[in-house]
C-alpha cells in the first residue's frame, strides 16, 4: 500500500535544531512555492548544511553583514543569495537564533506545477533536470532576492512553505563533501555535510572545489 505524502506543515521547532540534524531530515519533505500563476511543489532530494561562524564554507563565517543578515535567525526563514552575477540560491535558516546556520536546497523533484517550472527552465531536457542543482531549483520555483527573509512557517498562503512529505529512511540517506567547497587540504572532506537520497535521478552531480588561480 502506497501512503500519500503527509501535508502537515513543518513547525518552527523543526528548524530550531542543530543544522546537522535538520539537513538530512529535510530529505523527502515537500517545498511549496505559491506563485500568481499557481503552486509548484518540490520533493527535496539533496541539501547541504552550513554551520555559520564556525564553518569556513559559510557566508556567515566572517560575521554579520547586510547580505547574510537573515542567516542569524530566527529559524524557519528563507535566505536567498545572488551568485556569479546571474543565479539565485535558496537556503532555510535553522538552529538557535544568532547561530547563522542554514541548509542550502541543492536539488529536488517537481511533483506539481511542472508546466510552470518548465517555462522558467527552458534548457531542461527532462523534468528530472528542472531542479537538479541549487540555481536550477531556485529558477524553477521563481525564487529571487525578493523572497529573502520570507517566513517558511507563516502558513499555506505564504509565498513559500514546507510540508512533512515522506521522510526518507536513514538507510536511503547518503552524505559526502559539499559541492565546490574547500576544507582541510582543499578537498572538502573535513565537512561531509552534503546529504542526498541514494540513487535518486534528480540529485546533482558532485563537483570538487577548484582553487582560483591568481594572476601573476
From TrEMBL:
Residue ranges of the region described as Disordered: 166-187
Top EC class, one word: hydrolase
Superkingdom per UniProt: Bacteria
Keyword list, A-Z: DNA damage, DNA repair, Glycosidase, Hydrolase
GO molecular function annotation: alkylbase DNA N-glycosylase activity; DNA binding
GO biological-process terms attached to the record: base-excision repair
Catalytic activity, EC: 3.2.2.-
SUPFAM superfamilies: FMT C-terminal domain-like
ATP-binding listed as a keyword: no
Family, per entry: Belongs to the DNA glycosylase MPG family.
Name of the protein in question: Putative 3-methyladenine DNA glycosylase
Amino acid at each position: 500500500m502506497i501512503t500519500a505524502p503527509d501535508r502537515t506543515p513543518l513547525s518552527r521547532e523543526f528548524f530550531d535544531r542543530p543544522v546537522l540534524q535538520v539537513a538530512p531530515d529535510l530529505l523527502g519533505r515537500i517545498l511549496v512555492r505559491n506563485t500568481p500563476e499557481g503552486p509548484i511543489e518540490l520533493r527535496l532530494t539533496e541539501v547541504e548544511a552550513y554551520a555559520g561562524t564556525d564553518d569556513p564554507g559559510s557566508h556567515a563565517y566572517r560575521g554579520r553583514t547586510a547580505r547574510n543578515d537573515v542567516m542569524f535567525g530566527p529559524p524557519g526563514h528563507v535566505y536567498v543569495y545572488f551568485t556569479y552575477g546571474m543565479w539565485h540560491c535558496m537556503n532555510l535558516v535553522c538552529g538557535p537564533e544568532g547561530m547563522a546556520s542554514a541548509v542550502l536546497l541543492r536539488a529536488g523533484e517537481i511533483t506539481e506545477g511542472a508546466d510552470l517550472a518548465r517555462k522558467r527552465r527552458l534548457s531542461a531536457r527532462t523534468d528530472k533536470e528542472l531542479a537538479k542543482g541549487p540555481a536550477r531549483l531556485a529558477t524553477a520555483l521563481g525564487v529571487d532576492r525578493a523572497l529573502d527573509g520570507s517566513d517558511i512557517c507563516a502558513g499555506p498562503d505564504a509565498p513559500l512553505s514546507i510540508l512533512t512529505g515522506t521522510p526518507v529512511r536513514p538507510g536511503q540517506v547518503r552524505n559526502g563533501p559539499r559541492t565546490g567547497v574547500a576544507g582541510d587540504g582543499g578537498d572538502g572532506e573535513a565537512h561531509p555535510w552534503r546529504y542526498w537520497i541514494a540513487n535518486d535521478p534528480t540529485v546533482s552531480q558532485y563537483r570538487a572545489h577548484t582553487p582560483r588561480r591568481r594572476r601573476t
